[in-house]
Amino acid sequence: MSDPFQIDDDDMVIEPDHLVNKNTSSAHDSMQDVEFNADTSVSGNMTTQPASSPKKSYNGGPFSLNYYRRYFDISTLDFFKSCYRSLNPLSKLDSYEFQEVGDLYGPIWVTATLIFLLFFCNSFAELLSSLGHSKDDKDVVIHVNYFKIILSSINLLYGYTFLVPTVLWAVLKFYLKVADLAPLTRFISIYAYANLLWVPAAVLSIFRGLLSSHRFLDGCLKWGCILLGCVLSGCSILVKLNQYFHIVFSNENAEEQKKHILLLMSLLAIPHLGFALAVKVAFFGTL
Length: 287
What we know:
With 287 residues, this protein is an all-alpha fold. It has a domain at 103-133 and 141-284. Helix content is 58%, strand content 1%. The chain is globular and about 60 Å long. 20% of the residues are buried. The model is unreliable at 18-48 (pLDDT under 50).
């Protein structure tokens, strides 16, 4: 006769409540230590830098066109995002962005757009001025040296956008011997996108065509446009570079760090002021 209290293998065993709660709690606690990243990988900690996509390789040396594709491999969305961010002169970059290669698509097209806009606004202002002085349409004469303005603006804007960052990069690399040196294209990109902040000054300069008969007001508007563009673009450049200098000189003591940053910021402010005065002469005549 079989034991009535014997439990077969296929019968369900019900554990007491305190054991069930204990096992459930243990399993729940073990799941707390696991975090999931956005790329569906499992990790024990989170990183502040977003997961980067696999880097493309560009074969060939400096004498190959394929070598320079990396500087123009930028999507339309990324380009407009960079333009949008640059509209705030006080915006900063993420620290890891200083070690990424900057694009040259923006420096070329942003600078070209600014040259066209300054030329167009200057020509339109001259047209308004001539219309205001003429008594009938036959007397309208526009005195604009188109080739001189275009050539001077190309030399001025492209020269400043590419030359000053190159000199800064060379000083940091060969004189100060900075360890974590940002790529040259990153400095060029910072200067180029800051040129977008000259757009409000260029558009505002159109109204000087309505003040041609008031020399004092015309002069005030010209200098106001130059001051506006100089301050906005200068703030955009110096804020980002000041952020970068604090990163690369962070290992120095406070006094040496302050000395290096103040010296570099002062030296960068001088050519920017000279650039603003050169824009005044190129588009608005003599000082």
